[in-house]
Amino acid sequence: MTVKIERIGEIAIVTVDNPPVNALSQALRQDLLDAAETLDADLTVRAVVLSCAGRTFIAGADVTEFGKPPLPPHLPDVVARIETARKPWVAAMHGSALGGGLEVALGCRFRVASASAKLGLPEVRLGLVPGAGGTVRLPRLVGPANAAEMISSGTPVDAREALSRGLIDTLIDGDLEKGAIDFARAALKRPLPTPLIERAVPAIEEASWEMIAKTVAARAKGEDAPIRALACVRRAIDADFKTAMAFERETFLDLRGSAQAAALRHVFFAERAARRPPELAGVMPKRLDTAAVIGGGTMGAGIAAALRDAGLPVTLVERDEKGLARGLATLQTIFDGAAKRGRISPETASERVAGVVGTTDYGMLGNADLVIEAVFEDMAVKRAVFARLADACRPDAILATNTSYLDPEQIAAGVERPDRFLGLHFFSPAHVMKLLEIVPTAATAPEVLATGFELARRLNKVPVRAGICDGFIGNRLLKVTRTQAERLLLSGATPRAVDAAMRRFGLPMGPFEAQDLAGLDIAAFQRQAARARGETPFAPVAERLCTMQRLGQKTGGGWYDYASGDRTPRPSEIVSAIIAEAAAGWTQHPWGEAEIIDCIVLPMINEAARILEEGVAIRTEDIDLVEIHGYGFPRWRGGLMHYAEARGLQDVVNGVQKLTDRGLAEPPTTTLKQGRLEPRG
């Protein structure tokens, strides 16, 4: 049984116990339905408290049922049965009350919560809309504007915000179950509120609704579910309860079989699996109580901030007092900004800054469990750092390099006990970006590799194991993106057309806008290093821009021109002239939007297949996560490889071959031509 019933006087306690997160499995749905029937028939019971065992309230649907035909009783029927019960139900929420869990709570006459509770309807993040009355009941409780924002964004609110919006009736301090029982007894002494099924939706001005609709459309960026969710809320405003429920259910069932929902389910399961790679099953990570970061620049300060957010005390090491002061000031700015935006309290910001010890003395690292080097991307500089770390750190301390392109094997050369060394490639800004590429060397011990994954979990990041090559997984694919973007320019496209097409595909910004934001000098330095290795990078226009010191927004011009104090990109006559000069001898083509997208995305897929062939990535899902969390690939497309398989590999091969025949791409890889996306071995 997933439900236990006990009685304390005239109050019945229905306790859900379906570990680990009390998910709404078929068995739990049935048990809740049976409980409602049983307690309605019990004349000694006047009210019911719905409570949950463990660390959370009902956290949502049972993920093991995703993609399978649903079995009765269906959740809408369970919620409706609770809502029409003869005895009022009180939902006592702690932990996560999400999705179907919140819909069950909306079926209750009252809702109370502990201060730590999070409440939300995140179905749009799986390409769905709430399917058990969430879009119909929530606007009746909190108003259409609040409901539209919560449902279309899928973003949960904390208990205090829920109280301010009217989503819950009260906060419970101390024992939640006892507080809920006391609340129920007090409620029985007053007239009961009308069930949501009988309430009307509060009015909203049409101008306000139009503003909401514009905001949701801008945020959706090609994603269907937020727009469809908003339509459900609109139907709840315009129609009666029964009609709105039917519309919601029809929308839910339609989206459940959609390509976007399949893609988002794919990402959901990939993210769940990422932190527990099967090859590390049974391997225990090493304990991490203290950490250090070498280098207080933008990346080092961001890594230090991420470590502090996870509760680890940090020693920040810089080469001189001036650099140290800059690094500590950057950290202060990071935490002050978080407090200003309401992410943390001012007291928490002060506490996190206080947990960082700044020093120029490597002798302060004797007790560090983990040391992350984040200095300038130069092999000699990094090797010099690790030579000093070898003398300063404990023999069992984990030593990690944050490198984007350099070979960790070479960085680790000469490190005593190389089994404790690995690469940890953070993405900038390190305290914000979710991706962490974990790059072991041949000598890295399994428990050290496992510690990298455990660190990612503590930092709330998505870990991906990457093999050693120039750029690992993500930056290797980024190099293809930039190459293809320049090939488009030389064959007739414009920067603005390329950027617009990639935004239409679902990226937050196009490749030229992104380069201007980050700075063209970063890629220029990487090309310089590649030439030193004997390679011939392709960037004829970008090289000219760098020579002219057109490095992006920070210099007032890059691929675009920028007015002083204004980040709006404007087409540049200078850039157009450089492109025209570099394009001499190239066949010009009137590029359409779909062709531009294919010219960039299909060669990326081809390179990703090569990455799998070489064993640099060991799972297609890993490439998907890298692109989504490191480079903004649209989540609703499922990532690069899911997109390829959903589109059809033969279609991808045909597209790559056409580009190859025109001199605009490398030939299709062997495995891609064979219709397989598989890792080596």
Any key phrases for this structure?
681 residues, Rossmann fold, 3 domains, eight-stranded mixed sheet, N-(1-d-carboxylethyl)-l-norvaline Dehydrogenase, domain 2, alpha/beta, 2-enoyl-CoA Hydratase, Chain A, domain 1
Question: Can you tell me about this structure?
Answer:
The radius of gyration is 28 Å and the shape is globular. The chain has three domains: 3-257, 2-enoyl-CoA Hydratase, Chain A, domain 1, CATH 3.90.226.10; 288-465, Rossmann fold; 474-673, Orthogonal Bundle (N-(1-d-carboxylethyl)-l-norvaline Dehydrogenase, domain 2). The protein has 28 helices and 17 strands. Helix 9 (224-238) packs antiparallel against helix 10 (241-256), helix 13 runs antiparallel to helix 14 and helix 24 crosses helix 27 (649-661). By secondary structure, it is of the alpha/beta class. Helix content is 48%, strand content 11%. The strands form three sheets. Strands 12-11-10-13-14-15-16-17 form an eight-stranded mixed β-sheet, with helices on both faces.
Walk me through the topology:
Blueprint: E1 3-8, E2 11-16, H1 26-40, E3 47-52, H2 75-83, E4 89-93, E5 96-98, H3 100-107, E6 110-114, E7 118-120, H4 134-142, H5 144-153, E8 157-158, H6 159-165, E9 170-172, H7 176-187, H8 206-220, H9 224-238, H10 241-256, H11 259-274, E10 291-294, H12 298-309, E11 314-317, H13 321-340, H14 346-354, E12 356-359, E13 370-373, H15 379-392, E14 398-401, H16 408-412, E15 421-426, E16 435-440, H17 446-458, E17 462-465, H18 474-490, H19 495-505, H20 511-518, H21 520-532, H22 540-547, H23 573-582, H24 593-613, H25 620-631, H26 640-647, H27 649-661, H28 670-673
Parallel strand pairs: 2-3, 3-4, 4-6, 5-7, 6-9, 10-11, 10-13, 11-12, 13-14, 14-15, 16-17
Antiparallel strand pairs: 1-2, 7-8, 15-16
Helix pairs in contact: 1-2, 2-3, 3-4, 4-5, 4-9, 5-8, 5-9, 8-9, 9-10, 11-25, 12-13, 13-14, 18-24, 19-24, 22-23, 24-27
